[in-house]
Amino acid sequence: MNLVNALRADPSCQVRIIANAAAVAVALDTPHEQADALTHVCPNTLANLQRECRTPLLLLNEPAVLALARWQTQGWNYIRS
């Protein structure tokens, strides 16, 4: 809902959702029309769950923790939700 609320308040805002740990299974099992195309899934968690990424979810090419750190150095802000 944070994504929906943010886009409602500012349709031009840029959002990336990073799913790791328990959030990966939730993302895989609970399709969300607005969030899925913005959701990046941790490959380590996916491998630990022995599951495959589904479209339109995006598979990170590195562990989520590294992607988060890298994006923060590029000016993205991290909000845990």
Provide structural commentary.
It is a single chain. The protein has 81 residues and is mainly alpha-helical. It contains four helices and three strands; from the N terminus they run H-E-H-E-H-E-H.
Task: Walk me through the topology.
Layout (H helix, E strand, L loop, with lengths): L1 H8 L7 E3 L2 H8 L9 E3 L1 H7 L8 E2 L4 H10 L8
Parallel strand pairs: 1-2, 2-3
Largest beta-sheet details: 3 strands, parallel
Mean pLDDT: 96
Number of helical regions = 4
Order of helices and strands: HEHEHEH
Number of strands: 3
In terms of per-residue confidence, which ranges show pLDDT below 50 for 5 or more consecutive residues? Answer: none
Shape: globular
Strand order of the largest sheet: 1-2-3
Straight-line N-to-C gap: 10 Å
- Helix coverage percent: 40-55%
Q: Report the sheet-strand fraction.
A: 5-15%
Radius of gyration: 13 Å
Q: Which class best fits the helix and strand makeup?
A: mainly alpha
